[in-house]
Amino acid sequence: QEETWKHTLLLSFQSIGVIYGRLSTAPLYVLESVDVDVKSKDEIYELFSFIFWTLTIIPLFKYAFIVLRADDGEEGGPFALYSLLCRNARVGLIPSNGNTTKLLDLEDDELSKDESDNNKARKVIEGHKAIQHVLLFLALLGACMMLSDAVLTPSISVLAATKGLARSLAKLFSSEKTKDGVAHALKKYVPTPAACIVLVCLFGLQHQGSQKIGFIFAPIVISWLIFLTGFSLYNIIHHDEKILSAFSPVYMLNFVKKIDIRRWKLLSSIVLCIAGTEAMFADLGHFSKRSIKITFICLVYPVLLITYAGQAAFISRNLGGEEVLHLSESIPNKFLQHIFAVLAIFASAVGSQATITAGFSIINQCQALNCFPRVKVIHTSYDILGQVYVPDMNWLFMILSLAVTVVFHDVSKLARATGLAVSLGMLVTTCLMSVVISLQWEKGLVLSVCFFVFFGSIEAFYLSANVISFFSGGAWCLIFLFILFITVMGIWHYGTLKKYRFDLENKVSIEWLTSYGDVVRVPGIGFIYSDIETGIPAFFSHFIINLPAFHRVLIFVSFRPVPVPYVSPERKYLVGRVGPKEFTIYRCIVRQGYRENMRRTDDLEDRILECIGTYLEAEEGSGADSSEAECSARVGNRRVRFQVPEISSAVNEELRQLSDEKENGIAHFVGRSHVKAKKGSSLIKRMIITAFIFLDKNSRSPPATGLRSPVPALLEVGTVHIL
């Protein structure tokens, strides 16, 4: 349906509380985190010029006008860009069956388009495995930066606000005689404990869902923006109107001409003015492109320019004063400073919401594509499927954020790590986006290179500034978080990929099953769940060898992630017959998008049986040869009755058999794998396999073993995977 302006305005209001809290609270710590002395008024002008052009080029031009157009079914983030590449070129390294993806693409006439063009970039990428590994690494790197940001942002935002609260309390409760002692005590002992309390409350609210939280937080952010606009305009008029002349790029160029190590380090704090920009794209599934773009252009962007201009005007007038770089010091009235301190606490908590929400979405996407261990995912909205809550990761984020706050308790040190995460994450988006421009949009290699060079050089410039400040700040914290997340992702991806290949190599043919002697067919229907989509899984052949009996109706079920956000119900199930008709063996592939919950299988049995009924009707109408090894057909979402008088008696009899066997009982067969490393494996490989075993045992059960079926109807068959 076409989006109405009423709906756009409603989404714009909600997006203020979810997406733009981070950008709106960045003035709390951008200039405060500068740990290098600013020596002259001209330097303040030059730094503000950098802020203006950075906000204009990156969030406005790059994200609002370009990157937001590269959505994958109204979804954003690094994995959304990667999924676009997977569908438009054979670059996917995630275990996925090509036939199911091709059938999905054929409905949109994408496959024929891809195969008919002569895109040179596509041919180069498809022909080099190393490039495909680089693209996957970039997607994982971008995901790790966003997860790290979900840990660092709450810490730095809340800590900056509580430091402002401590300064306000020092002015409120201290007298002239005790001013220095009280101020020192409050600044030393209040910020960190207060920040920890706020962080616990913030993460404790996450189970309410981003929709409710965003609706509550939006008025807070709006009040915050109005407050910023008011006193910033006062500072511009009262302190230094000439600061507006710094909109000219001449000041920025003068800064670059005189660049040295000291000035380079100054830029590592300036990049924080665009912290939260990536959330505009990552949280795209929660809102619409038009609402996100309108909110930023009409509200957030002009308010941020006024705020930074007002702060720069105050600093230029009071350069050399005590704590002049703190935003709270630029407020002209003491009473307003106390209001600001309280409002900043709430606004900083809101500002953390964008990265936390994006972190949940990234975990859900990675898990669906077998790049992260299985964790519980709760959909917090019936209307918006993209709004998810991941309890396990929420508490992990909280613990890590508390640890970072307690260990560092310094805004400038945390700024180094946050700036590095922001600049590196944006550079990853630029790399993936440049490939999307060439492959998906087919705009040519020249335009793709221009995009990469222009935006990539700016982001690399800021990245180098943060790298220079690595040893003088707390940037090593980001390295620790990156190693933690990339190790977990890499080990899980490696283990699941090896297991999948082991299953493919050890499967048996359908002829083996149909020709196996002395097999007893027992009443009922057997659902056999496996990761492979052809042949018989090794664990079921192991079961047949030890207990030569299986049900009169067998249905092999595979859950297959595909590189799209959601799969519509009419395209979700692929059903086919396996072997001759008299054996009544079928196969069903259940396709899941990377934003879908793979454990919600309450009516799975009925849906699959309905689809088999539809398939039998289609098979009868097309006159398919019953001897085909595996005849696939697309089936719909409509409910099928097993007694249909218009079809032939043979099909009617088969439908009746399905109904009767369902009454006799349904059993579920799943494989319980035990992983071992091959003899003679290297020490590193044995360590990786051991880590994978640990993650596998301590993660959620696979989709098939999470079925809501009676315990006696679920049979687990143990197998050993030698990797």
Automatic annotation (TrEMBL):
The chain crosses the membrane at residues 47-68, 130-148, 213-237, 294-315, 335-363, 384-408, 414-437, 444-464, 470-492. Keywords: Ion transport, Membrane, Potassium, Potassium transport, Transmembrane, Transmembrane helix, Transport. It is a multi-pass membrane protein. The keyword Nucleotidyltransferase does not apply. It is found in: Cell membrane; Membrane. One of its GO terms (molecular function) is potassium ion transmembrane transporter activity. It comes from the Eukaryota. GO terms for cellular component: plasma membrane. Pfam families: K_trans, K_trans_C. Residues 12-514 form the K+ potassium transporter integral membrane domain. The keyword Glycoprotein does not apply. Belongs to the HAK/KUP transporter (TC 2.A.72.3) family. NCBIfam families: kup. This is Potassium transporter. It comes from Genlisea aurea.
